[in-house]
Specification:
two-stranded antiparallel sheet; 62 residues; alpha+beta; Alpha-Beta Plaits; two-stranded antiparallel ribbon; 4 strands; 2 helices
Length: 62
């Protein structure tokens, strides 16, 4: 499973790292980034929760 953040869509709300900090973090530009694009199996549910919670649908986890 891989995670991707569309930085053009991201508004930098910080919700995704608060839900799944094993995969997501805030970058220097204030936008989210998948620091670990290859989602560890033990964090797949959290990564999917972050995807579903993104207010602008900037995250894809598949």
């Amino acid at each position: 499973m891989e995670a991707h953040v569309d930085k053009d869509t991201c508004i930098g709300c910080g919700l995704c790292p608060s839900i799944c900090d094993a995969v997501f973090e805030m970058d220097d530009d204030g936008k989210a980034v998948a620091k670990n694009p290859e989602v560890p199996s033990e964090h797949e549910d959290e990564a999917k929760d972050a995807e579903a919670s993104c207010p602008v649908s900037a995250i894809v986890v598949k």
